[in-house]
Amino acid sequence: LGLFVTLYKNQHLRGCVGRIQSENVPIYQSVVDETLATAYSDTRFDPVTEPELKSLTYEVTLLSRLKLISNYKTDIQVGKHGVWLDNGFYRAVFLPQVPVENGRNWTLYEYLNELARKAGMTPKSGIILTHPTLKDQEEFDFSTTKFSVFEGFTI
């Protein structure tokens, strides 16, 4: 099973690091390892400082096994499934709660577009289309992309 630790400060993301699959490490050790990595190694944020510790909220999400899907349009349920995107050079993951947390209510298209951007895919990659019903909305062409889904259990 995979595991992610997310830190929040004043209800804002302060860090999130984890593993899609464990390396035969006991869960308690993974929680410790990923908490430290989240606090000190998430390159999107400065390392956590001692004065911040009391103001942080910790969230641990245990992941089910990855399941490769064949049709992202029907096999992904927003708010239920986390998604692993793999397009060769481009890779990213979103936990199941990402598209619905903090008042978000992303559609499937928004969910996958944001995941593609997180992976580093851009319109310049030559893999962009326009959603047929949403004017000027970017949609990436996922015809060569593999998606795997998982469920997350937050503790």
Which features does this protein show?
155 residues; seven-stranded antiparallel beta sheet; two-stranded antiparallel sheet; 9 strands
What percent of residues are in strands?
25-35%
Number of helices in the DSSP assignment? 3
Q: List SSEs in N-to-C order.
A: EEHEEHEEHEEE
C-alpha termini separation: 14 Å
**Alpha-carbon Rg, integer:** 16 Å
Describe this structure in words.
The chain is 20% helix and 34% strand. By secondary structure, the protein is of the alpha+beta class. Strand 5 (81-87) and strand 6 (90-94) form a beta hairpin. It starts with a strand and ends with a strand. The model is unreliable at 126-138 (pLDDT under 50).
Give a summary of the structure in a few sentences:
By secondary structure, this protein is an alpha+beta fold.
List strands and helices in order, with pairings.
Elements: E1 2-9, E2 12-19, H1 27-41, E3 56-63, E4 67-68, H2 72-75, E5 81-87, E6 90-94, H3 108-119, E7 128-130, E8 138-140, E9 146-154
Antiparallel strand pairs: 1-2, 1-3, 3-9, 4-9, 5-6, 5-9, 7-8
